Amino acid sequence: MTIGLAGKPNAGKSTFFKAATLADVEIANYPFTTINANHGVTYVRVECPCKEKEKRCGKCVDGVRLVPIDIIDVAGLVPDAYKGRGLGNTFLDELRQAQAIIHVVDASGGTDAEGNPVDIGDHDPLEDVAFLNREITMWLYGILERNWVKLARKIQAEGLKLEVVIAEQLAGAGIRESHVSAALTETGLARLDHVKWSEEDMIRLCDTMREISKPLLLAANKADIASRENLDRLKDLDRIVVPVSAAAELALKSAAKNGLIKYSPGDRKFEVLDGDLTKAQKKGLEAIYKVIERLGSTGVQECINRTVFELLDLIVVYPVEDEGKWSDKVGNMLPDAYLMKRGSTCHDLAYQIHTDIGDRFLYAVDARTRLRLGEKHELKNGDVIKIVSTAK
Questions:
Q1: DSSP string spanning 87-153?
Q2: Alpha-carbon distance 339 to 304, whole Å?
Q3: What is the rounded distance in angstroms from the CA atom of residue 318 to the CA atom of residue 320?
Q4: Domain annotation for the chain: domains and CATH numbers
Q5: Distance from CA of residue 38 to its chain's centroid?
Q6: Which of 203, 185, 70, 236 has its CA nearest to residue 136?
Q7: C-alpha distances out from residue 349 to 224, 354, 364, 378, Å
Q8: Whole-prediction pTM value?
Q9: How far apart are CA 107 and CA 247, in angstroms?
Q10: What digits encode the pLDDT tens for the residues 35-46?
Q11: What 3-state class would DSSP assign to 360?
């Protein structure tokens, strides 16, 4: 799975990306620092099941397990990007890979709609939220509208399934038949003659498909310098909003990497390990401590976790081969952690491990209770499961 980082230029996307991945990316105080998308690996933070055992698995730190996921920092988006303005086409082409979006917003209002620096508070961050949604919606509309008259007649003449044709037209944007079907029902357009749809109808359909296919979380970045009013107004929006200081997270990750502090992503505190910090380093860490104390955390890890577990509604499952030792056949304890859609079954897990194991599935075993589970048994978050099959 892939999470996309979206937003206008200079909102802090690249800082968020570097903080989440520690990848070497360019960060600068001007628009379009990111021209080609940055691809990296970040982590979901979960509590490791090995805490229930006497022995530690070796895959976690103090019971904190980090499960890898892909993340992509796409080119900054400016108004009318869907018409090809700025790096719009590049942005939208890259975004199709994402199953969910973290929209990094400059909550401080210190950058204008184009991403140019202005005085703190001069720009309304709510405008950025509305414009990004519209850009993605209009991008979808542009793809669909291009051949719509011809497609509408073909659907009518050949008796084709409406959602199948629309999904095929928008496949390059990551739209599936299920997304289209849900959007048709939600908008009520399924009950209307598609040949008579107005431009407004089609934009409404595309807007709903965007919400369904690309669920979005708001990272209210630069929260450490944003006004309380801006943060409150963003939090009042009907979506998940997380106050974030990507710069603080990046500083903590870098300090931890250099052995200056002990810090795990998402922690609400850190421990200084090196007593020989410079005056500037001490002052910087003191400032970050105050930010964490005020916000609860830097917010970066919270954004990633809530995107995965709330927006995408995934769970973590640990497949093992030895249900007693919770290990693989050579003794590695809890060797793998799989992210799966809530509602997935033991049979789904078998297929996730390998097609042959899925095809030759017999039953599963709950490693905690040692109970035998059938193929349709629904998995829970944190399950440790042994799959039994005839596959070699």
A1: THHHHHHHHTT-SEEEEEEETT--B-TTS-B--TTSS-HHHHHHHHHHHHHHHHHHHHHHTHHHHHH
A2: 13
A3: 6
A4: 2-125+215-250+296-308 (3.40.50.300), 133-211 (1.10.8.470), 315-389 (3.10.20.30)
A5: 15
A6: 203
A7: 42, 9, 10, 10
A8: 0.89
A9: 14
A10: 456 889 999 999
A11: coil
* Interval 218-235: pLDDT, tens: 999 999 999 999 999 999
Nearest in space to 152 (alpha carbons), one of 204, 189, 182: 189
Is 389's pLDDT higher than 60?
yes
Quote helix, strand, coil % in the chain, to nearest 5.
40, 20, 40
Task: Encode pLDDT of 180-216 as tens digits.
Answer: 999 999 999 988 889 889 999 999 999 999 999 999 9
> Going by DSSP bridges, is the β-strand pair 314-320/384-389 parallel, antiparallel, or unpaired?
parallel
Which two tokens mark 235? 């939090």
d(C-alpha 16, C-alpha 24), whole Å: 12
Closest CA to 75 of 31, 16, 107, 20: 31
213 Cβ neighbours under 8 A, 6+ residues apart? 173, 174, 175, 176, 179
Task: Give 102-127 pLDDT, tens digit per residue.
Answer: 999 999 999 998 889 999 999 999 99
SS3 171: helix
